[in-house]
Amino acid sequence: MLKFVILVPQEVETTIATLSSSMTITSLATSTSTLPQTTTTTATTTTTQQSGWFRTGSMNNVRERHTASLLTNGKVLVIGGLYNADPTIGELYDPSSGTWIITGSINNAREGHAACILENGQVLVAGGANGGNLNTAELYDPSTGMWSTTGHMNHPRDGHTISLLTNGQVLVTGGLNGLGALNSAELYNPLIGTWTLINTMNNARYGHTASLLTNGNVLVTGGYNNLVGLHSAELYDSSTGIWTTTGNMNYARERHTASLLINEKVLVTGGYNNLSATNTAELYDPSSGTWTITGSMNHAREQHTASLLRNGIVLITGGRGHS
Q: Which keywords, in A-to-Z order, does the entry hold (predicted)?
């Protein structure tokens, strides 16, 4: 059974008591001395923040290639994955108690799928694999804990990306089907629950990344095209539905991460470079469409995670190394 480990600031309270004394002496002609003494105690409490790792509750099921989605109520929904005794079971993590509870079961078991939070707070899960690649999609309603089926994608796909656009629709790109990498893309309309094929990408790819930029465009980077890892990148303009190529990355990579930074640039880290896992990183500047190499990570890794923290720092965890 696997356990979650969470990095949080931990409060440590230190109370320091400062004693101050005052003494009054009155001398009389009778040589009698009166020594009234007043003592004042002041307590000062200082709270400091310390970061550290601590264990939290274990999931009810072992999983790999699952998804985890932060709901609007602050809980985390985990669904699908491999090595699960019942792969349809969903679980909810409550950060306030550090515990997991079973929630509604998904209609189709799946791993390698994609999930995103819609504007109405529901979770859309699409594609993945269960023996073969899937084109099915489902919706999770946090208010009821129940799953309902929605429209099927036009193509089964695994290892694809999913992005919520600024217009409320959902963009799915690439992935893998039974024949190989896909260059197809489609849009999901939550209002009517249907998928529409749109213009294809310039390159077929899976194991790539998709990042929603501040201008509303989607940046797709890297991936694998059945033959080699890719260093190409392209942009989807949601206002026109057109794909355009942009500057190539300096290194080919798949199963990497891409993070939109607070300065509106995109940080790409790690991945597999056709030979092994890599520790390289680079920055994409949307204003110029170019990539710049930045500092390398301390460890080469692929299939890792990257999280943008509130202070603008990117936290990289786990993955696979050279072996």
A: Kelch repeat, Repeat
pTM of the model: 0.85
* pLDDT, mean of residues 2-29: 39
CATH number of the domain residue 294 falls in:
2.120.10.80
What pLDDT band is residue 146 in, cutting at 50, 70 and 90? very high
Q: Count up the domains in the chain and report the number.
A: 1
Q: How many contiguous H segments (helices) and E segments (strands) does the chain have? A: 0, 30
Percent of the chain with pLDDT over 70: 84
Whether 270 is covered by a domain: the verdict is yes
**Separation of alpha carbons 268 and 271, rounded Å:** 9
Four-residue CA torsion sign, 301, 303, 304, 305: positive
Contacts of 253 (CB under 8 A, 6+ apart): 221, 222, 229, 230, 231, 268, 270, 271, 272, 273, 278, 280
Region 295-313: mean pLDDT is: 96
Give mean pLDDT, residues 171-186.
97
The residues near 61 (Cβ < 8 Å, ≥ 6 apart) are 81, 84, 85, 86, 89, 91
Could you tell me if residue 226 is inside a domain?
A: yes
| C-beta separation of 202 from 235 below 8 A | no
